[in-house]
């Protein structure tokens, strides 16, 4: 299968500590539902919002590469892990924009839990200047209601669009898409690992092997 290089590019950042089927299914569903030509996975370096990851950046990058290897539409971007300073999504989007030019539609992919936290991100309203946002459902979280900050609700009502419109502009719209709900989290995987429990069927076999070979999360 030859994939076109132009067309909307999915951008999917995360701690990926470790990458699991919740992440991979979100990326694959977005590719299909939103007409993305490729999805770029960007493991975070030292994330500004949260505790130090359980595995070093080099391990999280290696696991993302193993997980992405079997999907020709997925690619892994090492820049945040390799950068000396803290990761900020806005900086990655600025970099991608400079790399890909002003016209290519970029679609930042997020689970709804991450989306609800958006107002705490650096220069968060500027994200829409560089990319569209696409939000996937995740068990245990919902859009709207009391958990939705007012500033975010305002962006949702102003920018809400349908997936078929994403290719018509480089940035600025907001869509939701539905994925098969998967109540998998990296936190749960790390806890299972520490308890000596099986990780099978929660993440790809090469990643399970990598974790055990490098004795991560013990
Ligand atoms: P942790 O448990 O360590 O917080 P996580 O499993 O939530 O990790 P992250 O790397 O923090 O994974 O998440 C990266 C992105 O993937 C976020 O946008 C998050 O919302 C999304 N995501 C992670 N797991 C799922 C899932 N099971 N379903 C839908 N979205 C998910």
From TrEMBL:
Coiled coil: none
Entry EC number(s): 2.7.7.18
A GO MF label: ATP binding
Keyword Heme set for record: no
GO biological process, one term: NAD+ biosynthetic process
Domain Cytidyltransferase-like: 11-192
Gene3D superfamilies reported for this sequence: HUPs
Pathway: Cofactor biosynthesis; NAD(+) biosynthesis; deamido-NAD(+) from nicotinate D-ribonucleotide: step 1/1
Presence of keyword Membrane: no
One of the Pfam families matching this protein, by short name: CTP_transf_like
Alphabetized InterPro entries for the sequence: Cyt_trans-like, NadD/NMNAT, Rossmann-like_a/b/a_fold
Physiological role: Catalyzes the reversible adenylation of nicotinate mononucleotide (NaMN) to nicotinic acid adenine dinucleotide (NaAD).
Protein family membership: Belongs to the NadD family.
Protein name: Probable nicotinate-nucleotide adenylyltransferase
Organism: Zoogloea ramigera
Gene giving rise to this polypeptide: nadD
């Amino acid at each position: 299968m030859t994939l076109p290089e132009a067309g909307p590019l999915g951008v999917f950042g995360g701690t990926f500590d470790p990458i699991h089927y919740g992440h991979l299914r979100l990326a694959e569903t977005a590719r299909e539902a939103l007409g993305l030509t490729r999805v770029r996975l960007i493991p975070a370096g030292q994330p500004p919002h949260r505790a130090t990851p359980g595995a070093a950046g080099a391990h999280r990058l290696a696991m993302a590469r193993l997980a992405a290897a079997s999907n020709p539409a997925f690619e892994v971007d090492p820049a945040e892990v390799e950068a000396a300073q803290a990761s900020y999504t806005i900086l990655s989007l600025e970099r991608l924009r400079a790399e890909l030019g002003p016209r290519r539609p970029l679609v930042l992919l997020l689970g709804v839990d991450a989306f609800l936290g958006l107002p705490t991100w650096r220069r968060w309203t500027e994200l829409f200047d560089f990319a569209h946002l696409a939000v996937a459902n995740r068990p245990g979280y919902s859009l709207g209601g009391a958990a939705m900050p007012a500033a975010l609700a305002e962006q949702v009502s102003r920018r809400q669009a349908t997936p078929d419109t994403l290719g018509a502009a480089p940035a600025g719209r907001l869509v939701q898409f539905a994925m098969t709900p998967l109540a998998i989290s990296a936190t749960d995987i790390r806890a299972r690992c520490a308890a000596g429990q099986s990780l099978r069927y929660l993440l790809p076999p090469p990643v399970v092997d990598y974790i055990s070979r490098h004795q991560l999360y013990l």
